[in-house]
Specification:
Blueprint: H1 3-28, H2 31-47, H3 54-62, H4 67-96, H5 102-130, H6 134-150, H7 159-180, H8 194-229, H9 231-236, H10 238-267, H11 271-298, H12 300-307, H13 315-341, H14 345-368, H15 374-399, H16 410-414
Helix pairs in contact: 1-6, 1-10, 2-5, 2-7, 2-8, 3-4, 3-5, 3-8, 4-5, 5-7, 6-7, 8-14, 10-11, 10-13, 11-13, 13-15, 14-15
Length: 416
């Protein structure tokens, strides 16, 4: 097995182990505990994306940087991380001072640590991939998930704290192992050259905006439910969150596999090769969505009844989420074009519209004094996914006028 295939396979295996961790937490925690875990995960993921384009722009520069330039990029990155660490600590202290139990204050501290570690994990992973150290990335991944899962043996002692600790431990251990093993460069000093800052953030800021949009929507959604409905109702959505993470694994993997060949064919001006790859990708995604929908309809109820019977009623929210999520997933092969031609305008339009629509919907609910039910919250998320899909496909249609290879049926139409 070559290193790239091993990297993909191990990444997929780790995602399934994370899914297994989620199932175990559902067996041990009550709905309040699950709700708190879901809220913590949202804050960690949101904080872990507050790089303002550093991860995207820095990664692209690292791919072609020489040793001296690479060290300058590393120094700048860790200078930014040090600044963010100070902000995260300050926010955690302010928030913890308003909490009434030691357990919640500990959770606030671990959340700040998890957010910073998630940022550092993404950076160190990018650095290893850019340098071609895929074996080191695989080993570090395996060690970090192993420690995270090992901590679950302590669940009976303090279920909620151990659950959060297990989640936080994964990125923390990854970063520690990566730095200690020499798999990534350490900063030589703290510095932030203005010219390099401009280059990095000009390259990565737009992609940062698209990435932060989804997590902002998720954070807003979970914060609304926890504040207006309570942690227990948020815990009832935990199954839907698990489904969301599981469902996105394969499409993400397919994009990683197809993107390099499509980029190569596009740069070579081989429209027929681009079209062939697009057709293959679309067919695989359509087939996957069809199989997933069938499994959700026929297999999910009896399987859940066997493994997690308590959560069978919670399938309701999975079914409400699935239509919009599937439509959004079907739009992904078309939106892949934006990455290939490096034109992100429609990403900004689609993801920006999702944020605006989410904010307006929850603001209207708060101002009207009539709280959304869980059904409405999940239907809103599903509708937002559908809205994004429509806008992304519209962008694909508009831009593909000048890039005919990205229109799968263009060749057959012109040959008639």
């Amino acid at each position: 097995m070559n290193s790239r295939l091993a990297f993909v396979v191990i990444g997929l295996a780790i995602n399934f182990l994370v899914l297994g961790r989620g199932v175990l937490l559902m067996l041990v925690l009550d709905y309040n505990g699950l709700g708190l875990v879901a809220l913590v995960q949202a804050y960690i993921l949101f904080g872990g994306l507050l790089h303002f384009g550093l991860l995207n722009g820095g990664y692209r520069l690292l791919c072609n940087a020489g040793p001296r330039h690479r060290q300058r990029i590393i120094d700048l990155a860790y200078t930014a991380f040090a600044s963010l660490a100070a902000i995260f600590v300050a926010l955690a202290l302010v928030y913890a001072s308003q909490l009434d139990t030691g357990e919640y204050r500990a959770v606030a501290g671990m959340t700040a640590l998890g957010a910073l570690a998630t940022l550092l994990r993404a950076w160190t992973m990018n650095e290893m991939v850019a340098a071609g150290r895929l074996k080191a990335a695989n080993l570090t991944n395996a060690v970090s998930i192993g420690v995270s899962l090992g901590l679950l043996a302590l669940l009976p002692l303090a279920p909620t704290l151990v659950a959060v600790g297990s989640i936080v431990a994964q990125p923390v251990v990854f970063v520690v192992v990566a730095l200690a093993s020499g798999a990534v460069l350490r900063p030589s000093r703290l510095r932030m050259p203005k010219r390099l800052v401009k280059v990095i953030f000009r390259t990565g800021f737009v992609l940062f905006l698209t990435g932060i949009a989804i997590q902002f929507n998720s954070l807003l959604e979970r914060s609304y439910v926890s504040n207006e409905l309570g942690l227990e109702p948020l815990g009832r959505l935990y199954l839907a969150f698990l489904f969301l993470n599981l469902f996105q694994m394969v499409p993400t993997l397919l994009e990683q596999v197809f993107l390099p060949s499509i980029v190569k064919a596009h740069k070579a001006g081989e429209e027929s090769a681009v079209r062939a790859e697009m057709v293959n990708l679309i067919m695989l995604v359509v087939g996957y969505c069809a199989l997933a929908a069938l499994a959700l309809w026929l297999i999910a109820p009896p399987l859940l009844e066997l493994v997690l019977p308590k959560y069978v009623p919670d399938l309701r929210w999975v079914y409400l989420l699935a239509p919009g999520l599937i439509v959004f997933t079907l739009s992904a092969p078309f939106a892949l074009m934006f990455n290939v031609i490096i034109d992100y305008r429609w990403y900004v339009i689609g993801y920006g519209a999702s944020v605006v629509a989410t904010v307006i919907a929850f603001a209207a609910a708060l101002l009207s004094g009539q709280a959304f039910s869980l059904d409405r919250v999940v239907m809103l998320r599903s509708g937002i996914y559908a809205l994004m899909a429509v806008l992304l496909v519209a962008g694909w249609w508009r831009l593909s006028r000048n890039h005919r290879g990205f229109r799968p049926l263009a060749g057959s139409r012109n040959s008639v």
